[in-house]
Amino acid sequence: MSSQVEVRASARPTVATADTHQRTAFGETPVTVGVEEEFLLVDPASRQLSTRADRVVAHAAEELGDRVTTELTRYQIEVRTDPHTSLADLGDQLRATREAVARAAARSDLRIISSGTPVLGQHTPPPLSPGTRYARSAATFRALDHEQSACACHVHIGVPDLPTALQLSNHLRPWLPALIALTANSPYWAAQDTGYASWRTMTWCRWPVAGPPPYFESPTHFEDLIDSLITSETLLDRGGLYWDIRPSHHVPTLEIRIADATPTVHDTLLLAGTVQGMAAQALAAIRASQPAPCPQPELLRAAYWRAARDGLTGKSLNLHTNRLEPAAAQLDRLWHTALPALDTSDDPGLGLLRTARARLRTDGNGADRQRTAYRRRHRLTDVVVDLIESVTATDDPPHTSRHGAGTDR
Question: Pseudo-torsion of CA 41, 47, 52, 53, nearest 10°?
Answer without folding.
Answer: 0
